[in-house]
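Q: What structure does this chain adopt?
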Amino acid sequence: MAVYSDHLLILAYADFGPDKLPLNLLSLNILGPGTPMSGFHKQGGWENESDAMSRYGRIVKGLAEARAKHHADVIVLQEATAKLIVPFLKSRLPAAWRIVADERSGLITCFNGERLKVENPDDAKLDEKRRIRSLRFKDVNDDKYVAVHNVWGIYDPFPHEMEADFRRLLEQDEHAVIIGDTNSRIAPLDSEPRNIATNIIPILINRSDRIPDDVQRPDFPDGGFCRGPDGVIHQLATRILDYENSEIVEDKRSADELQPWPEYRMVLCLDDHYRSQKLIDGKSIFEYQDYLNEMFNEDVMVRMASDSFNRKAVGIRFPQNSSFYKFIVNHLQQSPGFQHRQIAEANDSGRAFPVIFMPVEQVELLHKTLHLYRKTPLAAQHKQQLFKPSSEDGAEKSAAKNHDTSGNPKLV
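A:
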């Protein structure tokens, strides 16, 4: 079977409200030529430049057909080598289409020049540090301006910093979209069990985590968000497309058939749904985070989490050496679906934080356990002094900087 990429092709719909035309977008991380960070290959150099060009030719043929079939006006690519793929884009896309690319960022944005116009050179920007290419268009079809941000994110297992970056970008314009390979996680807002994988974790990371080469660990980093005139941020509705025929693909396999990887991961919680959904004790995840921080004087982070089969959990990150965390693990580690592990930051510090995940069906048990902790002498001590970060222990010092201790990769 011919290789295309270790990511799937995404079709996204940006809805800006009843009075504005929507925008259809295609997004794909095309997998760098011969990269060792591949979900299919055991080492780098698995293709030469000629092989890569053949693969990119297949990819662009599929993109061009998907553009026509699904009336897409924007295509965003990540991990792209411009000199290899731009010639194919020029030959396959309509003459009116424009291509914005460079040889440094790995980001390419293509757009329908008949509908979308870049009126000012300042409307085209590249944030090399965060790997985001931004274009601000005049939409001539309904006289609006819309910013499209193509992202190939720097891996981070914790979503809070990326959420803040994305929010700042989206709030700069009345109509805005950010889309691509976030290298974080995006899960559907609903809880219907199904395969939501859009990517395979590189085999190289399997080896570092002592997992066999033939085990494919799925991930779900691809997608995005949009903002319209009401100022509310929404998660993009997305569908997976077949590379060869551009048809929408729905994986109907059950969990028993698929045997999905069971690991929970925190997801980007930018959609306004997460601020309004009352999930624990009549509170949203953000309200519950504030509640825990105020009650226990510990700097905790609360987010929605998911596995690759869209089974949801509440994830809570605790400070290092947290007695709060240890108490919860001791009381809940035998509960069905409960997970806990140390997860390392993706920055230079590589600090590992203790994290728990509790299935949403059992959050009331989690809440009761938290209140049980309040009655302990240690909790009373917490109420009398603010939390002070402790020094890293030996395990934290050895935590890998490029992936968390559960084996999630820092994709580069």
